[in-house]
Amino acid sequence: MGKSRIPVVAVFDVGKTNKKLFLFDERYQIVFERSARFLETEDEDGDPCENLESLRLSVFDSLHEVFRRDEFDIKAINFTSYGASFVYLTDSGRPLTPLYNYLKAYPEELQERLYQRYGGVEQFSLDTASPALGSLNAGLQVFRIKEQKPDIFEHVKYAVHLPQYLSFLVSGQMYSDMTSIGCHTALWDFGKKDYHQWVKDAGIDKKLAPIVGGDEVFSAAFPGSTYKVGVGLHDSSSALIPYLINFHEPFILISTGTWCISLNPFNEEGLTKEQLEKDCLFYMTYAGTPVKASRLFAGYEHELQAKRIADHFQVTTARFKHVQIDWAIIEKLTKGRIIPESLDAFSKVDLSGFDNFEEAYHALIIYLVQAQVASTNLVFSGRRIKRIFVDGGFSKNSIFMNLLAKAFGDIEIYAASMAQATAIGAALVIHDHWNSLPIPNNIIELRYYRA
Description:
alpha/beta, Nucleotidyltransferase, domain 5, 2 domains, seven-stranded mixed sheet, 15 helices, 22 strands, 34% helix, globular, transferase
């Protein structure tokens, strides 16, 4: 008898830069991973875009590799990827166009026409919980195809979001899921809990695949295979799943990276005009309930300003990684001072006013935390929040975490770490379909910061 095979779930995590495949065992430990990057190609206008064909081949290639390994028994497969990208499929499942980049410039005139017809940009943005972001509003990409390439639009059987296209490659089923529809696509009317009227008027609803829950699974398209295939998830919503499954008291998750996104799944109050102007929007959970979110470009600002400090004091930015909080410096820098809340405030501060790089770096974090607190405050609601979890880069920053705990004195603040939260979310959401064990309660490592 050979040794028994390990039951696993395979998760494809497709980012803009890195495409990864993970195998998780029943305790959610990574037992295999493979990473790929491929060259971008160009669309018909010469704009850079993802190479769909490379992506398709890479999915099958990676699957062949793991199916060949006899130590694993693959029970299920799921997908997570960035949102805001549509694949236009014929009824035989062939893509009709390149995978347009969500940063592609959007024709001003088309956008204006749509906004004017439906109450103006502000009303339209409030209804769809989507700040006006051009191609980042994926629904507008479909509108563009309809208006500018009617011959292609006519041959589209379904326009599917990227995570659902990946799922389709393995299941042969075309569906839509709420996490993709709900992220700044301008498709969904959050008040009516249905597609916005414009989607129906333009006949686009007929080109959108039927909606299923994010925890839905299908059978694989290949004869004789027994594994289940998940419908796929939008990455920001997927990263929230481990927290939703583990914590039931109201919390906010601040997911930090280039963007610091504050997510409150316990706030269903509609957006206000002010919140919209300050970059608030709604995401959706896999169950289709709204998650109020605010975005701050703080990781990017941190990188810029840290470099400015390093250059001024002639040190490398690597030195900042190990700076522990010094409360005497904090006291000196904040005593009797009002710190502005705007993210770019520190860029105007003259660095020659600081004694050394430690002091300047403390000041930078004081400013960033001030902006972060203002951003996070936008998603608070009537329900009392018990905890704030911080994951990603800033969760490892001692100054940032301590100052955040001080700012939110009556709320428990935790640095949360979990390897590959996005991929684990996609595995957890279909737990019952592949895993014979209960969901472990130690997936997320927490470190408490006292005020």
